[in-house]
Amino acid sequence: MSQPSQELFGHLLSPQADGRVDLKRGRVVLRDGWIESVESVEHTGSTAGAQRFDESGVNSRSCVISPGFVDAHLHLPQFDSIGADGLSLLDWLNTQVFPAEARWADANYASAMSRRVAARLLASGTTGVCAFATVHHVATLAAMRGLEAFGLHGYVGQTLMNRGGPPELNRTTSQLLEELAATPAAGSIRPIVSPRFALSCSMDLMQGAAQLAHERDWPVQTHYAETVPECQRVREAFGEDSYLSVYDRAGLLGPRTLLAHAVWMSDHERARLAESGTVVAHCPTANLFLNSGLMDLASMRTAGVRMALGSDVAGGPDVCMVRVARAMLETARDRALMVGTSRRVPSEGVPTAADCWWQITRGNAEMLGMADAGRIEPGCRADLVVLTPADGPSATPAWLSQPDPLAALLYGFDERWIERVYARGQVAFRR
Predict the structure, then answer these.
(1) Under a CB-based contact definition with an 8 Å cutoff, are residues 251 and 227 in contact?
(2) If 0-12 CB within 10 Å is exposed, 13-18 middle and 19+ buried, where does residue 170 land?
(3) According to the model, what pLDDT value does residue 2 have?
(4) Residue 87 pLDDT > 50, yes or no?
(5) Integer angstrom CA distances of residue 279 from 134, 301, 307
(6) I need a labelling partner for 368 at 20 to 30 A (CA). Which of 69, 130, 164, 398 fits?
(7) Is the pLDDT of residue 43 over 50?
């Protein structure tokens, strides 16, 4: 049964196909979970529209309407592990992450946690995800249903690992591949093939995963080149000249594959990523938190590597993608300073504020193959974030008069600006 349309008014943050981000006053009409129409308007405070919009206390003259944020890399069972500081990657996995994931042997616990995580994501403006669950098949299915029930969309994958973890988290290759093949979509949450990383997987598991991904036309996600010790151990374990060669031999590279981190790479590896069309999920907050290193974003761009952006919770301590995007900019700026580039004349590899907003909306959606997300356009999902930067204790009232309003929003951002989040056209979060 068709529902009455809803009209939203404000400054529309609209990412374009060419990487620009427009910011102009407009009206968005929502119907049955989709954006029905979008139009620019000279005055967004018209009597009828403003009255409807202001019923929840939002000032349509000062609010910003953004597409819902998309997080290209996170771990659902790790949200309670945020802030476990002072450990290297491999020690952190053994002492913090693996125990947290072992709790998902209880599918009821996994279901309840997934719903709690979904609520937190929505409160931070995230409506689309690409996420790892755990090795537990039933828990993974429960997590997919939990996120879908809250209106999120994207991908959730059962973690594939047959070695390198505690006994309770290791599975046989045959069991993992059989369970993966039996994974149905849960509405708008779809399966994704998810080898944890090379040290957790035998070659036969990775090759089997790649074959299944090809047969089902499913995307792939894994981790790659996060730390120097990890890279060294992978080369030794597989007898390859480079970490990337392991994934290449397994058949895991390609346009539908997402490699998280990619910090420690050679020019040859970057060229191979670009040639294969493989996407890299940059996780700047996680790389800083775990002292893994600073990605060379400038070299990635120069090589033509396709890029996405992820929070990597709990390796990354920030859930909100606006903060992750700011960290992307600051990481690139820090590297530019390290190589002597003047801060006043940013290098080509340093993203702008517009780049940041584009990446966490349309950019991530495109890299993940979400054709109907990340945009404020007719026919797209009605996933929207309503921000009020000029109201409340964290107000930035002069943001629109700044030389770069998008920079003012990025640097001044406060999650208390998030007044409402729409998922599938329904209010999924209201402050």
Answers:
(1) no
(2) middle
(3) 66
(4) yes
(5) 22, 12, 6
(6) 164
(7) no
The helix (run of H) or strand (run of E) holding residue 428 is: strand 426-430
Shortest CA distance to 196 belongs to which of 97, 65, 303?
97
Bridge partner residues of 39 (DSSP): 27
Question: What amino acid is encoded at 284 in this protein?
Answer: P
The structure tokens listed for 172 are 């046989």
- Which of 203, 197, 196, 204 lies closest to 238 in space, CA to CA? 203
Backbone angles phi, psi at 175, to 5 degrees: -65, -45
pLDDT at residue 162, as a whole number = 98
CA pair distance 248, 297, nearest whole angstrom: 22
Region 64-87: mean pLDDT is 96
| This prediction's pTM | 0.94
Query: For the residues 181-196, what does the mean pLDDT come to?
Result: 98
Residue type, 325: A
- Sign of CA pseudo-dihedral 324, 325, 326, 330: positive
Cβ-contact 37, 29 below 8 angstroms? yes
Q: Above 50 in pLDDT, residue 140?
A: yes
Which residues are paired to 385 by β-bridges?
66, 421
Query: How far is the C-alpha of 327 from the C-alpha of 297, rounded, in Å?
Result: 12
* Residue-level length of the chain: 431
CA distance 193 to 214: 10
Alpha carbon distance 56, 334 (integer Å):
41
> 145: how many CB neighbours lie within 10 A of its CB?
16
Average pLDDT estimate for 142-157: 98
